[in-house]
């Protein structure tokens, strides 16, 4: 993708795929990396995603990966130091849904934003909105372990242990996604851990 940009600096596909690649590298490709190194990789991903948004304001992938990279950056940085990112992440996901209302990934990210938003109930945090978007994500992509796990986490946040156990058991039993094997394995292991704590 770097080589593509040498000939075409505003190539939208190359820009958002570089953003996605940096998200993956920071999340899964650098297991020995410390927080400082991961933050630097996420910052590069954010920069590429911003360029993608500039290249095509109506493209969903630029907005989506900008929000995702910002979200993961915030998780590594810590909630108190990244509170300013919450509204930006929500804005990018809402931009995606304005273009494509059935974008499962954007619904999932919004769900996470609403139930993880620091300072509930004083912030934008809302379990009701989190549940709505989590259900939408699962309805749109029922085979996704990550989205189903996200729905279970919302039920845990709402103290609905019966529903959470039901969904976590489904995640544990589901086959891993061959296209997203590291992510799937991580999701299944985390679902088992959450299940054991309920």
Label this structure with key terms.
198 residues; mainly alpha; 74% helix; 0% strand
How would you portray this structure in words?
The chain starts with a helix and ends with a helix. With 198 residues, it is mostly helical. The chain has helices spanning 2-7, 12-29, 35-55, 60-77, 85-99, 104-116, 127-140, 145-157, 161-173, 181-196. The model has no long low-confidence stretch (mean pLDDT 91). The radius of gyration is 17 Å and the shape is globular. It is built from ten helices and no strands. 39% of the residues are buried.
Q: What portion of the residues fall into strands of 2 or more residues?
A: under 5%
Largest sheet: none
Instruction: Tell me roughly what share of residues is in helical segments.
Output: over 70%
Anisotropy-based shape: globular
How many helical elements? 10
Strand and helix map with partners:
Elements: H1 2-7, H2 12-29, H3 35-55, H4 60-77, H5 85-99, H6 104-116, H7 127-140, H8 145-157, H9 161-173, H10 181-196
Concise account of the structure shown:
Helix content is 74%, strand content 0%. The longest helix has 21 residues, at 35-55. It has helices spanning 2-7, 12-29, 35-55, 60-77, 85-99, 104-116, 127-140, 145-157, 161-173, 181-196.
């Amino acid at each position: 993708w770097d080589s593509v940009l040498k000939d075409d600096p505003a190539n939208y596909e190359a820009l958002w795929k570089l953003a996605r690649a940096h998200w993956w590298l920071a999340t899964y490709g650098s297991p020995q990396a410390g927080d400082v190194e991961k933050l630097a990789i996420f910052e590069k991903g954010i920069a590429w995603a911003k360029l993608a948004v500039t290249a095509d304001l109506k493209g969903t992938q630029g907005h989506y990966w900008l929000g995702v990279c910002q979200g993961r950056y915030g998780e590594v940085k810590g909630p108190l130091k990244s509170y300013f990112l919450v509204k930006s992440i929500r804005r990018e996901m809402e931009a995606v849904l304005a273009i494509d209302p059935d974008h499962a990934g954007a619904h999932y990210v919004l769900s996470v934003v609403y139930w993880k938003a620091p300072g509930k109930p004083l912030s934008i945090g809302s379990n009701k909105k989190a549940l709505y978007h989590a259900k939408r994500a699962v309805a749109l992509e029922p085979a996704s372990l990550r989205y189903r796990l996200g729905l279970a986490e919302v039920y845990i946040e709402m103290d609905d242990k019966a529903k959470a156990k039901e969904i976590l058991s489904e995640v544990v039993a589901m086959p891993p996604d061959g296209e997203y094997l590291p992510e799937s394995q991580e999701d299944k292991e985390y679902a088992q851990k959450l299940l054991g704590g309920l």
